[in-house]
Amino acid sequence: MRFKNSTALLSVSFAALTSTSALADITADDLWNSYQTIAETIGGELTATTTRDGNSVTFTDAKLNFTIETPEETFSIALLYPTLSYTNNTDGTVSMDMGGDHVYTLMATGPNPETDHLSVEVLANYDNAALIASGTPDDIVFAYAMDGFTFELQNITSAEDLGFDASKVAVTGSANDVHGSTRLQMGDLITISDQSKISSLGFETQAFDTMAAKTLHSGTYNTMTNNYTVALPTGGMAITNLAAALKQGLALSATSSTVSSTSTTSVDLDGETVVSEKTTFGTSSGSVSANADAIQMSGRGSDVSIENAADHELPFDLSAKVATVDMDIRMPISASDAPQDFTVAFNLGGLTVGEELWSLFDPAAVLPRDPATIDVNLTGQTTVFQDFMNFAKMMELSNDDVPLELNALTVKNFLISAAGASLSGTGDFAFNNDDLTSFDGMPAPSGSAELQIAGANGLIDKLIQMGLIAESDAMGARMMMGMLAVPGDGDDTLKSKLEITEDGQILANGQRIK
């Protein structure tokens, strides 16, 4: 069901948000004070000129300014807002005027303002939009809804060469059926949380490089759901040293999902298309979280399709499909004497490529066209010597300074499967960071891994049949497998246990090979 009238939708959302508690009065000044508190907390300053007319309050010339100091230079970043108009309602709520054009300007200035400056304007327009704030000065809920919005990038200016013609850059976009709510809670930490839904979102970009090549990029996203929560320490923070703020409670968590999405890219040069790509996703989701312990990112996509059209460098169409894509990364970011856990996991399942690619090297279809899979899941421990989010200190490190060391690595799963053959394995290793000589500069490992190979001999036979490898080369590969592996439990299977001892010996199935 599509709500054509955003006011009706907003009424439903507003009632749901306030049904469990009585409303208290807030004013436009309470909103502005909360904005200023947040700005101060993140190291900025928010200023404006205030005008009052009855129950209306207007903030003009609003500006959020940041000063960023590094050991070498000082920069400033400013965000200029359009006129912000609020109405104090008789029921103790505040409504915001969302009509008309809204122009936001981002300005960055370096040590020499005459030569180090960049500015960009964003023009936004909201269709049949409404925003109502309610609650108390320390706990404010913003309920918002609109039939849609549009945005456009304009007036890019820079004193330096950006590598493209800024006057010809075009970025436009629009969204439909947007609604959600944002909550600001003031306390020992300032907590900002938001949940929103967007029926559809699309954008288009255009740019010309110094060779006059035109790049067009577009994207569409359908049925988007977004949630995020940010906790800010009231003691403030410096952008160049977020590590201190993390230790005081700075944290972020966010999730996002879409039902389907499409992106296209094309590059034209001298009237000829030199690149043409299209990628589509089915359902996809992602999440990110950050706190003093670690940063973690995960994502999942399904039913991925990639198409590249033929051009002067690629004389045939190229296509591929992926059933599922998964990614999970967790990395500690704070210095500690104790080892900390990390995770790196990636899965590419059900990969198939178009027959146009297969036909280049296997026109007779000797190799099986089975979907390929790559699945890697690694966990381990690392000792972090430097707070990664203390950017000022990280910039002081020399190329020889390594801010962490690897202590342990567990291969929970490793699988590569393609063309009728597969390699899989698991393993556990510890690393001696006091021994950097036994293995040519890397910490000396100790531990073991178990590997399984299936279909290797059959794959070698097919490669010989196709003429891609010679019998002599195949013999060398078979001899190597015979040295490192023993027969497995099934036909054309091998298995191997590789061990590295603490004194540097390497064993394969109990036989020393080093």
Overview of the molecule:
- The protein is mainly beta.
- It has seven helices and 26 strands.
- The chain has helices at 6-18, 28-41, 242-247, 355-361, 391-396, 456-466, 471-484, and strands at 44-53, 56-69, 74-80, 84-88, 94-96, 101-109, 117-127, 130-136, 139-158, 170-185, 189-208, 214-233, 251-269, 272-281, 284-290, 294-308, 318-332, 340-353, 372-384, 404-418, 421-432, 444-454, 486-487, 493-500, 506-508, 511-512.
- The chain has a 26-stranded antiparallel β-sheet that branches.
- The chain is globular and about 90 Å long.
Give the arrangement of secondary structure elements.
Layout: H1 6-18, H2 28-41, E1 44-53, E2 56-69, E3 74-80, E4 84-88, E5 94-96, E6 101-109, E7 117-127, E8 130-136, E9 139-158, E10 170-185, E11 189-208, E12 214-233, H3 242-247, E13 251-269, E14 272-281, E15 284-290, E16 294-308, E17 318-332, E18 340-353, H4 355-361, E19 372-384, H5 391-396, E20 404-418, E21 421-432, E22 444-454, H6 456-466, H7 471-484, E23 486-487, E24 493-500, E25 506-508, E26 511-512
Antiparallel strand pairs: 1-2, 2-3, 2-4, 3-6, 4-5, 5-8, 6-7, 7-9, 8-9, 9-10, 10-11, 11-12, 12-13, 13-14, 13-15, 14-16, 15-16, 16-17, 17-18, 18-19, 19-20, 20-21, 21-22, 22-24, 23-24, 24-25, 25-26
Can you give keywords for this protein?
single chain; 514 residues; mainly beta; 26-stranded antiparallel sheet; 14% helix; disordered N terminus
